[in-house]
Amino acid sequence: MAGGWADLPIDLLVEIANRIDVLKDFIVFTCVCTSWKIAAPKDKFDVFSPQVPLLMLADKDNDYREYYSLSKKKVSSIFLPEARGRECCPSEGWLCTMEDSTGDMNLLHALSRIEIQLPSRDDLMASNGLGDDQVLWDWTVKAVLSANPSITSDYILVVMYHANINRLAFWRPGDLNWTNINISVDRMGDIMDMNYYKGKFYYVTVGGEFWVFEVPGPTTPKLKPTVESQLLYWCEDDIFRHHSVQYYLVELSGALSFVIRYACQFEDHRYKTYKFEVFEVDLVKGELKMEPIKTLGNLAVFLGSNASCSIESSKFIGIKPNYIYFTDDWHEKFRCLDGAGRDMGAYNFEDGKIESIYSDLSLSHICPPAWIMPFRIM
């Protein structure tokens, strides 16, 4: 061949790319060089779509992870040994992973295998003044990125983890250790969910308290040794008196919204979701609008152990408007059952009916199914 691989005709490259049926091979194809990346069809495997979540199926204790596409109704398998046997909390197309036996933690791109090393679990506990002998049990509940590390190095990672009680800590590129975030544990109870919205992190507690904190980015000198959270509003409505509920914070049409997930609990410790309610958080007045939102309109919402998100359904094939897609995230019950992953579905916000999103059983004690946002691979 007279020229190099980069000199192959674009029509030939497109033809080759269209014949690839395995996701991992497609990723390799896009990484050969710029011309091959440009030739790759933008809708193949949903890899180049910045807003269509893939369902990352449960860990099978091998070196491969399976992803189910709602658009294509098929499963693709990729080689991802870095996620084997690890807790995985998705955000912005990345996984915050933790290995239970060693405590090693990483940020792992869910499709390309790119890794960013994080301080260990020991450092995470030390940020709160804890040692191994002081923690009865621990696990990572949720990880939220302020921005996609594939696009910028100016991002913040905040983890919500359970070490006897729920706690918060953050890390920024260049930091040697985790930094504790001060929260009023004694008065507020467990944190139920957390999300990033317009430059700040928000979280809601089991007792109906809405809190906010701001972390300086890695390019900004850290002025204080810790970050303080501030109480926005304490809602004493009866909706916070229910049992077997989960709370979520998600951005809907530019506004921060609050979602309640109701479930039935059975004698064998299993849960079954049966209803959702959505409210808008008024950040100007510091109040929570208690009148339920009647419709999500064209939006589809994705909830679970991932950082909650929404998309405009009309832009994508296979995504239904006015639906809430949810995965099993009853963390406190993971170890009591044969693995989490049963309580998944798509909730029709108009008539309250729940549809199946994945026909097979996908269970794991360590890493059950979760939504992944497959952002463009750099």
TrEMBL record:
It comes from the Eukaryota. Residues 8-49 form the F-box domain. It holds the Pfam family Beta-prop_KIB1-4. SUPFAM superfamilies: F-box domain. Signal peptide: none annotated. PANTHER family: DUF295 DOMAIN-CONTAINING PROTEIN (PTHR44259:SF43), OS07G0183000 PROTEIN-RELATED (PTHR44259). This is F-box domain-containing protein. It comes from Solanum lycopersicum (Tomato).
